[in-house]
Amino acid sequence: MFASSRPPFPLTYGAGIRSHRLLTGLSAAFDVTLVTQQSTQDGVLLDGVELARRLPEVRVVAVPASDHSKRRAQARSLLSARSHQWGRSLRPGYGAALRAAVTETSARIVHFEDPGAARFGPVPSTLGVFAPHNVEHRIVRGSAETEGGLRGAFSAVEWRKIRHEEQRAWQTMDLCLAVSEVDAATFREGGARRVQLCPNGADALERLPLARRQAADPLRILFVGTASYQPYERGLAWFVSEVMPRVQERVPAAFRVVGSPPLRPIPAAGVEYVGSVASVQPFYEMADVVVVPVFHGSGTRLKVLEAMAYGRPVVATPLGAEGLPVRAPEHFDAASDAPSFAAALVALAAATAERDEALERRLESAHEAIRPLFWPTIVAQLVKRYRLELERLDTAVRA
Q: Against a cut of 0.85, is the pTM above it?
């Protein structure tokens, strides 16, 4: 049983990609039922019929979504011990649908993909697995520390509620799956009994050759991700305001942001907010370097893995590459302030124009370092883990 607050679509952001790759990978080895909440994306209602069409190997149970407006739900959550983000995100009918599906299918493992679904678990007589993508309360706490006004005040209350919900899940589930050792340590500190790794990954991609670039051509800088996600929106605002002018003083440069645009985009010369696209590959083909300016958050960034899989140089803040099996400067450039970030990009402008052999070696080394994190390998490890868990359950029954 794969329990998730949201359908694993669209495949244009990290959470959707991770959920989709794990769900479809598990369905190739087991009989899997997805229990999720309906949502509307790009004008299409992702109900049971539509999700079954997109996920033909998966049995789908889609619960109707809440009809409360966001602002009304936030206001109501202030009077509740539950968080707005996760504790109030699903209708009570979700829990009934989940238990009914477990009974009907005789499911023995329930994989809870996020804190919202996990509040309806564990389900009696099943192995409960909590597999969140992040330590969510850290992300919201970061918002409380950086936002002012009502947003900051709301986040200051919200992150404490989310922490309580996460700790309950860590403590009550039979097994917790963490995306990194950093998150795993937090789970253990919060009372998790058993913790294993199930890292983030990238599709098995062949390296793309670096695009040919003359010294007078603009350095083509790329960011791929959901720019409306608060940690990314803040990082991008800093990059556009503080880093790009420093780069453009020294070399011509153009910056593309691919993915859902920021809620408050900062206009600037040489900056283009492309929006969501059908395929990111053409943008990687045209890019000279990928940037990951992230200063608060949790989990690991799929965009770092994807950029390295495509064979593109990466400049990231230390947090941007946290929890991944890559090291600076061997695999990427780490920069924590605007002058060092700009200096790294200017150096890469020279290296990409000169077809620098050291850069080529670094790109090859980075690609090899993240190869164990291609999704087929991660899914195979998760399938092996769940088979071992089923064997343990069988042994316990026989005993």
A: yes
